């Protein structure tokens, strides 16, 4: 089974509009215990996202008292000079969601795998992804917490999926055991390539925490192929 975003996403999504005031955005994040919130236009399309980091810009550039000689970190001062990342210094003066939001928003669709969604999060350094339909309208949201739900799958479901992914000829030769998400493959396959393929397929099943490979094989067909092509096996 390849778990998709639609299987784990939250469908009842908290959101704000461009005109939502700074304080109301802050209250929304705090009240719902979330780290970011999507900003929608009048037709329900995602036009941006506001995160806790976006709100912190207002404090990052603020003097604490008259004559305060504090200077923001070099990173913040550099952003001030180049004013990138959606106008970071401009955000520190923002009053509404439209001023504060990061745009364009990093989004995803419901039909991609949770693995792909996790990679998008990692690449862009975000904790939550708005889920949109073909028209760009918001239909859900997926968080890091949602993505780790795949590791809550029961052992029997994982075992069934592992067996389904094994090479057909090797199914009767491989014993599959699963305990707390840890898969153990035991037995003897006809060829080394079948054993390697079985391990790779099992590792890719959703919910697998770790894999223990104790497989053996009767024929090392990979070494034989190398020999036939004039290569060295040792």
UniProtKB/TrEMBL annotation:
PROSITE patterns: BON (PS50914), CBS (PS51371)
InterPro entries attached to this UniProt entry: BON_dom (IPR007055), CBS_dom (IPR000644), CBS_dom_sf (IPR046342), Diverse_CBS-Domain (IPR051257), UCP036990_CBS_BON (IPR017080)
A Pfam family recorded for this sequence: CBS
Keywords associated with the record: CBS domain
Top-rank taxon: Bacteria
UniProt-listed CDD domains: CBS_pair_BON_assoc
Chain ranges of the CBS domain: 9-66, 101-157
All residue ranges annotated as the BON domain in the record: 150-219
Protein's name according to its UniProt entry: CBS domain-containing protein
Organism: Sinosporangium siamense
């Amino acid at each position: 089974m390849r778990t998709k975003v639609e299987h784990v996403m939250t469908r009842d999504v908290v959101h704000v509009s461009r005109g939502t005031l700074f304080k109301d955005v802050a209250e929304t994040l705090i009240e719902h215990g979330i780290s970011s919130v999507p900003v929608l236009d009048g037709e329900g399309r995602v036009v941006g996202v506001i995160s806790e980091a976006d709100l912190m810009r207002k404090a990052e550039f603020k003097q604490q008292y008259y004559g305060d000689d504090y200077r923001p970190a070099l990173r913040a001062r550099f952003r001030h000079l180049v004013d990138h990342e959606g106008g970071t210094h401009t955000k520190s003066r923002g009053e509404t969601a439209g001023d504060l939001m990061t745009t364009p928003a990093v989004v995803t669709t419901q039909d991609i795998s949770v693995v792909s969604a996790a990679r998008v999060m990692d690449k862009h350094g975000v904790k939550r992804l708005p889920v949109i339909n073909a028209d760009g309208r918001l239909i859900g949201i997926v968080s890091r917490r949602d993505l780790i739900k795949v590791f809550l799958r029961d052992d029997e479901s994982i075992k069934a999926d592992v067996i389904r992914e094994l090479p057909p000829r090797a199914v009767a030769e491989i014993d599959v055991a699963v305990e707390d998400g840890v898969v153990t493959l035991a037995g003897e396959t006809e060829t080394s390539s079948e054993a390697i393929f079985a391990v790779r397929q099992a590792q890719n099943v959703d919910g697998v925490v770790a894999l223990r490979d104790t497989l053996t094989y009767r024929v090392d067909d990979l070494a034989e192929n190398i020999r036939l092509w004039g290569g060295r096996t040792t």
